[in-house]
Amino acid sequence: MLQALRGRGIPVQAFKKGPDYIDPSWLEQASLRPCHNLDSFLMTPQSIIGSVARHARGMDLALVEGNMGLYDGADLEGSGSTAELARIIQAPVLLVVDATRITRSVAAVVMGFQVFDPGLHIGGVILNRVARPRHEEMLRQSIEKYCGIPVLGAVPRCPEMVLPDRHLGLLPPQEWESGREWVEGVGRVISSHVDLDALWRLAASAAPLAVPEEGGPHPAAAREHVVIGVFRDRAFHFYYPENLEALEHAGARLVFIDSLADKELPPVDGLYIGGGFPEVMAAGLEANVSLRRRVRRAAESGLPVYAECGGLMYLGRTVAWQGKQYKMAGALPLDVVMEAGPQGHGYVAAEVVEPNPFWAPGQVVRGHEFHHSLVQGLDETRVKLALRIMRGHGLDGQSDGITYKNVFASYLHVHALGEPSWAEAFVRAASEVKEVSEGKSMARMEG
């Protein structure tokens, strides 16, 4: 729908409900704008509303993709569900219904969603995987007669619309050369089978947002005084836009590093290595010996390094995947093995129990994890574990947050809107190390 709307010349802003990284990357491909996550476990209602208002400003339409079932949440009350998010931002819901092997019963399904939460505005339905015109007509008539809401579209069974996937979900666009053509093809299908004018009218029925005063981080709002390197390439691309914005707002200039192609580590005061698929790109990471060595030396010298999931894997000694073992940076005394099933999946809450540059002891950090990797051979005589897991899995169900000198590596992914102190602490740590380094250089010059 994003591609189809943009094809009509309608500026549209995409949002993704939940903490996912890969789905937003595809939504970005369609909208040609960064997609922003909205999550009521990671963020407050005020920060969610502020994010929608800020990023949709100047757009004609904002489209939020839900996740799971409409009412599926973390508990019996549906906390963290797509329905809860729709209530927070006062948005009408367009219900997508799988029409496989169903006719008149579709009305009972839709009616169940309507009466389950009468306070939620379900404004229309899109039928998916429709078999043939006769099937579509029966479905439309059933919903409109018994439910009293319009059917905005009926998308036929279309194998070419299916995206390939693997262990963490969809194949990311960074790894699919024909992804742009696929998005354009899907847009043509939707343009032919969805009433975009009716979609526009439904979006226009949304109530005005009561925007809170605190607007959140804005890039370059502070004077740049440190440089933070960010691994961003085919191996590492799981970053929330707000995290990068928050670092800039706190006073950092970001320099992007390609872990597969760049042989040198540029002059930086800190290093941010996010998540991604280092196991898939392990051969290329291993082959870049020069950069691996420089990252290890930087960590040993006390450079602040913040690593999430894939970044943790890269900082270890080795990664084992599909029967092969690959050398990594060796900055941390551990090895990583890829398993067939998830080793940690879902929301995380953890208490900080050890001093480190990024989080204060006693603080409770909230985030999420999704990894098939398992840490083995961790030498706990050389490192400390800074996080006590209250919810989630982390390294072993009890701990996470490997700290060594100024390195912090964990399976925890955080969102800057939910953890605003993170970026400020990162920039502060980088600034302190930079001042020490500049002081030593000055002393050598004077000597």
| Helical segment count | 13
Q: What is the spatial order of strands in the main beta sheet? A: 11-9-12-14-23-22-21-18-19
| Percentage of residues in helical conformation | 25-40%
- The CATH first-level class of the largest domain comes to Alpha Beta
CATH topology of the largest domain: Rossmann fold
The tally of strands reads 23
User: C-alpha Rg, in Å?
Assistant: 24 Å
Please tell me about this protein's structure.
The structure is a single chain. By secondary structure, this protein is α/β, with parallel strands linked by helices. It has two domains: 2-204, P-loop containing nucleotide triphosphate hydrolases (Rossmann fold), CATH 3.40.50; 226-438, Rossmann fold (3-Layer(aba) Sandwich), CATH 3.40.50.880. Helices cover 32% and strands 26% of the residues. The protein has 13 helices and 23 strands. It has helices at 2-7, 22-31, 45-56, 82-89, 105-116, 133-146, 179-193, 196-204, 241-249, 282-287, 289-300, 310-315, 421-446; strands spanning 12-17, 36-38, 61-65, 93-98, 122-130, 151-156, 165-166, 169-170, 226-231, 236-238, 252-257, 270-273, 275-276, 305-308, 318-321, 324-327, 335-338, 344-352, 364-371, 373-376, 384-391, 399-404, 407-410.
